[in-house]
Amino acid sequence: MGAYKSDDDYDYLFKLVLIGDSGVGKSNLLSRFTRNEFSIESKSTIGVEFATRSVHVDEKTIKAQLWDTAGQERYRAITSAYYRGAVGALLVYDITRHVTFENVERWLKELRDHTDANVVIMLVGNKADLRHLRAVPTEEARSFSERENMFFMETSALDATNVEQAFTHVLTQIYRVMSRKALDGTGDPTSLPKGQTIDIGNKDDVTAVKSSGCCSG
Amino acid sequence: MAAFINLEDSPMFQKQVFSLEGTTDELKDRCQKLYKGVKKFMGVLGEASTGVSAFADSLEEFGAGHDDPVSVSIGGPVLSKFVKTLRELSSYKEFLRSQVEHVLLERLTNFMTVDLQEAKESRRRFDKAVHSYDQAREKFVSLKKNTRGDIVAELEEDLENSKSAFEKSRFNLVNSLMTIEAKKKYQFLESISAIMDSHLRYFKLGYDLLSQLEPYIHHVLSDAQQSKEESKIEQDRFARRIQEFRTQSELDSQQVEPSNVDGNHVYRTIPYKNVEATSLSTLDKEVIKQGYLLKRSASLRADWKRRFFVLDNHGSLYYYRNTGNKSAGSQHYYSGLGEHKSGVFRRFRSRHVRSASQGSLDCNLIDLRTSLIKLDAEDTDLRLCFRIISPQKTYTLQAENGADRMDWVNKLTAAIATRLNSHFLQQSPINYASSGPAGEELSLDQKQDYNRRLNMGDDVLAILRGIPGNDACAECNASDPDWASLNLGVLMCIECSGVHRNLGVHISKVRSLTLDVKVWEPTILDLFRNLGNAYCNGVWEGLLQLDDDCDNGSNNKLAVITKPSSKDSFSLKEEYIQAKYMEKALVVKDEVETKLTASSIIWEAVQSKNIREIYRLIVTADANIINTKFDDITAVDAYHHHVDEQDEVKKRHDPNACQRIKDSRNCLQGCSLLHVACQSGDPVLLELLLQFGADINMRDYHGRTPLHHCIASGNNAFAKVLLRRGARPSIEDGGGLSVLERAMEMGAIADEELFVLLAECH
Q1: CATH 3.40.50.300 fits A12-184, yes or no
Q2: Is 0.80 topped by the overall pTM?
Q3: Which residues of B touch A49 (CB under 8 A)?
């Protein structure tokens, strides 16, 4: 219960899910982002894990509610509950294992089957620190992500490269489309692949939009 | 070769050449014979190879598939291994054949076409050269002395030329002969020994392959032997069963009584026990009765068809039609009788009939729950008839003899009664009614679950009957009760269960020990173990027992209430049970009991997990004390932390702001008995309170439901129980967070089932 202290106060709450094959480093990305921790011998995730962290965008507090589950089996009982209400997703693969990149397509299908069409997705090539073992060229992943209208970034949960940026970027994008700033073009156009505008739909679609004060504590 | 020491042209040389040529010709003959032999051999080898592979193919087609049931039944997986081996063997044969071809046949052909031919050619050229040399010599020798010098010179030159050509072809001939001489010394040996070697390798490969397979083959053989013996035993057993069946049916036919035409009331006298007794033995789908009945078809012709009917202990009645051959001539006999009434049956045409006549065994389920049994045929004066009338359809059936008819009618009536009983109020019935007789539509999980429960079935009965007082009905002392009231914790007979049912669920929740397989969870069994007929009646019939103790008949009211026996009429039992549970007329009430004291006593009892005491208190209390709150028994102000006046209302209720929760994870303000039970960790206590209707979504001072408490204390098992019993996870506590959000705060939900239950309703 002491897991979070004063982050009750927020303007927006976004649910983000982490998906990708087993062992690509989802849980470590999560722990790096929320607690700045990395565990070299982490175990496989059991059930569903949650973490939160708040970030500030345009003087607004955005609380990210991150959901993480084991990548071993798909199409399980929890699938629909897991994706329900997610507005963003980090689709993680391991740059040293090409097969995890090949499976991205299937994960993407599952994600799109279970979420709103406008969900903001970032393709994340994790374990970028293992340069000498690279099996997925950056360009291959980048062009794939552009084809699929995803953002793309290579990260390393181990040395913390790009982890913060990946999460923040997704959250910012969700916020932008949410607050409709993306529509008038003032938002950074280069950050959107092919200059496309992602419309997240009605505000009601988003898990919970809270205005400050309703639950001051 | 030593023969040709002298290479000069001489008769000896000529002779030698001749003799060599002779042997060469001889050799050629033999080579041709050998060639034929080799050709034949190769043909045989090739045929053998294709033959083996054809055999392997047919074997595979026969049954090496892993998927289709026919293959599996004849040992497909084993065969496929053999097929593979046979293919290997075939390829070895093919290899041997190609070896023979390359090593022997080709070389032989080469020898014959190149070397022997060369010798022949040389011979021809030599003969030609001899001829021209002879001519040239003739010419030269026949020159006269006066011949001109230039002609002499010309002829001499010719002679020289032809002589050298002769010499050349002579050496050629010798050379080719010598080549043959040389080659025959090694070529044949080499080729043939190579062939022998490849034979050796062929058999070696085959041996290796098969010797690897050897243990497996022996294993399969012994397996086959074993199955042979088993099937023999099975056959014997089957033969014996046939024999038994025949003697049994002979016995039965001797016992046939004359049919009872006026049988409308006969079946009432036959107790339900008949059916119960059969269904008690196991909870498995067991056939209560099965056999052929004549069924009047719903079609226009209304003819009679012989159908195989099966009634199982789950109260499902279904019938099979014999497909293919038209059975029994009897239907023609009856068809005439039915025909003139065809109009009556027109409206009973059913989809069952139309969906018929597929290749497989067709099966129709009759819904017994809403059916009625009538002991006559609709305006038919046929004997041995009865009808099953359901809202959708009326089945007019005819048994083959009177006893059979009565048996069917009794069993069907009993089955309908049990079906109705078990269905009534059952919250999660097994879907056997809709899933067909064999339960094919149950998912695998359900099936496993089901099977687990089946195994438990006998235990359930044994456990419940073994509890003190549970060997007899709690109301009328009838022996072997197989019905129970879940919340009252008592066992009773089927008749009394009917009365209980009429009391309403708020008083008694009736379930069958044998037919309601899903309700008998371990916690419910534990609850019953804690109670039992003896104890419960001690509470409910307290005055009666008091009365027995001091038998002076002082209490007039009691004089009119006496406990019925199993032989008493239904109405007597009904009267008694209503007085006992609705009016609580026999309960000993504590004299000075206000609501406050009752509440505090039950609170203590819950805290000390005293199941019997809680039960007694709930029964004896005048008011409903099941939803007692902590605040009812304590002055709250004295208990709870001070609340600053300025504090917002919201914050006051936020559990995060409560010092008690922070310190001991426990704040009792506003808690109900159920909250306490959840913290106690005693599943039986929880069960008891839920059975007596404790409000599952009651919120404490901090707005937390019992489910919130369970999640906060990590008691996932209880959380799941509560969720399955209707706890709503969407209720927000004083801090504005639902149960799922509270669980998320704690970092993870390791139990996926719990996660789904929580998320589902979110």
Answers
A1: yes
A2: no
A3: 747-748
